[in-house]
Each structure stands twice: as C-alpha cells, then as structure tokens.
Amino acid sequence: MLRHKKILLGVCGSIAAYKAAMLVRLLVKAEAEVQVILTTSASAFITPVTLATLSKRPALTEFVRNDQSGQWNNHVELGLWADALVVAPASANTVAKFARGLCDNLLSATYLSARCPVFVAPAMDLDMYQHPAVQENFRLLKSYGNHIIEAGYGELASGLVGQGRMAEPEEIVQHLEQYFTSRAIV
User: Fold this and answer.
1) CB 3.0-4.6 Å disulfide test: which of 42, 77, 79, 158 passes with 11?
2) Can you give the pTM of this predicted structure?
3) What whole-number percentage of the chain has pLDDT above 90?
4) Pairing of strands 84-90, 118-122
C-alpha cells in the first residue's frame, strides 16, 4: 500500500536515530519514495551519507546547500511533494517546536508547510516522555490532526526502564500502511 507514496522522513537527535536506517530500508522495500530531512543534532547519531545511500536521495539538513551554488531546499515544495511526513525519532525539542509553531530548521519549517498527514514517533527518556509539558505538546499535536505513534516500554539508553523507546520501524510502516489502506477503502 506504500507503493509510489512519497514519504518525508524527519530524523531528530536521539540515540534512536539508528533505527531510521532500517525504517528507510523498509519504506524503500515497500516501493515508497523516501526523502530524509535531518535536524542538525541528528547528524551526531547517524550520518546523512547512510540515509542518503539507503533512500537513493540526498539527505537534507539545511535550508541552503553548502556548495556556494545559491540553491536551497524549499520547505514549501517538500511539504507539497509528500503524501506523508513521518518524524522518527521525534525528540522532545522537535515535538515542542511543532506544537508551538516554531520553525528554526528545515524539518520544522517543512512540518508547518506540509499539507499531508503527519506521523510522530517520539523517542526520549521516560521522565521526559511523562513530563506534563511534553504530554501537553502531544495533546496539541493530536488536536492539529497529527498521528502520534506511541513510544514503547522497555530499557532506555539511560539504563532506566519505562515508556520512551521509539516504535520499531516495522510498527511505523504498519501505521502508514493502515492509514493509506483505510483511505483507499473510503
């Protein structure tokens, strides 16, 4: 059901960013077109080269390309191109930016420009995940029509155990397939 779907994949700074590689592989295997946008901090956890290789497209990180050509990555065009925007992992910082309409990077500006459905798969430590401010931001995102793919329960990078693990890539793909299947039936 993802064949020929255009998927924007936002990757935020989180130890769970390593799962983005598998998510890209699964989406490409399902014959989706995948365009990756990384936040600056995501590049500390997974390289743009890895995601570009797997997606067969340059991984975007900035508005303006660093090649002195004057070319830029147009967030409006990206938002119009996509059939879905998936943010996985979504950090508490990015969730807050989305909830409050802040756009100081390519991913958040693209989010605000997107006309497609948005799927947010958070990843953060359990105390961050449970914090009232973060929970309020999730509530706001849902009220805007965004789909929150709940974080799983388990051992976290901090060594603590609780909710905050990013959903597995297979689960995220399943959410997308269910969404597009339900739209095809209507």
Assistant:
1) 42
2) 0.93
3) 84
4) parallel
